[in-house]
Structures are given as C-alpha cells and as structure tokens.
Amino acid sequence: MDDAEGTARHGHGGRRAELYDAIRDDGQELAASLIQLLHAAAETSHLNPTDFQCLVLLRLGEPLSPGEIAARLKLATGTVTSVVDRLERQGLVQRDRHPDDRRRVVVRPVDPPAGDGDADGPEGPGGPGILPGFREPMMDLHERYSEAELETIADWLHRVGGVLRTFADRAR
C-alpha cells in the first residue's frame, strides 16, 4: 500500500495529509539525526555504538538479563556477553543475581561518579556525562512551547515509541 492508498483508506486528505507527510519526512530526518547523535555520543563516551546503546538502554530502566538486552537491541546473546564484558571492565555496568531466579544474572548500570555532568541532572540519552552540553540547547528549545504543547509532544513521543517498538518486534 503506497501513501496515496493509505491516505484514501483512512479518509484523510488535504491539510491533514500534508501534515502527515511532513511528520513522516521530518521523522525520517530525525531518525537519521539520532543515528548521527548516537555515534557522536558513543565516540565522546569512548565507547563503540553498540556498547553505548546497551549502556543507554540500561540507564533508562530496570536491570535486564543478557537475553532481554539481546532481544531489545536485536543482538545475538554472544554479542551481548561481549558488550557487557567490555562495559563491566570499564566500570560502567555490573552483573547481579536475578532477584527471582538466583541461577540467572541481570545487568545494571553503575552510578556515575558525583560531579559527572551537570548538577541539574542527566544531559543526554544515557545520563550524566554521556553527552556534555546537550541539556541546555534542548531546554532552550522547549522554552518556546506551552505546558499543554509539551504534554502533547510528550504523549506523541510515548505513543510513537510504542508503535516503533511493536513494529520492530514484529520485524524479526
């Protein structure tokens, strides 16, 4: 189904179709920019992009098993073992016993040392010190939006993230 068929099927045309096209095109640009940012942040952090992605994933949520990391990053479990080994050697993560199954392990990030990054909190996608200087321009950007607009943006990002994760899971 091409875009014209999708637009006709959903009954959208005119300005709404133009806005969808703009969101689609800008979304693709954003995806490319995020990949560039990932590589820049990884380089700044002295990590390779895969190790950096793993660290960001772990800093965003609860401890994960190596199998969960593999599933979320679409990596082989052997690759994840190597990634976790490298991150552990650098003191960025540690392995702990799984809370529900003592035979398994989970990986969790090690808290960064005090003073690593701004006192205000996380600077970038991975937390303090991962991408120094990133927080301020993002905060400046958000100043132009009302709280209601920021709520809409936050809601959209949350929902689109869910759609993207679902789609990625189905694409295996």
Automatic annotation (TrEMBL):
SUPFAM superfamilies: Winged helix' DNA-binding domain. Gene3D superfamilies: Winged helix-like DNA-binding domain superfamily/Winged helix DNA-binding domain. Residues 16-162 form the HTH marR-type domain. Residues 107-116 have a biased composition (Low complexity). Residues 95-136 are annotated as: Disordered. InterPro entries: HTH_MarR-typ (IPR000835), MarR/SlyA-like (IPR039422), WH-like_DNA-bd_sf (IPR036388), WH_DNA-bd_sf (IPR036390). Pfam families: MarR. Residues 95-104 have a biased composition (Basic and acidic residues). PANTHER family: TRANSCRIPTIONAL REGULATOR, MARR FAMILY, TRANSCRIPTIONAL REGULATORY PROTEIN. This is MarR family transcriptional regulator. It comes from Nocardiopsis coralli.
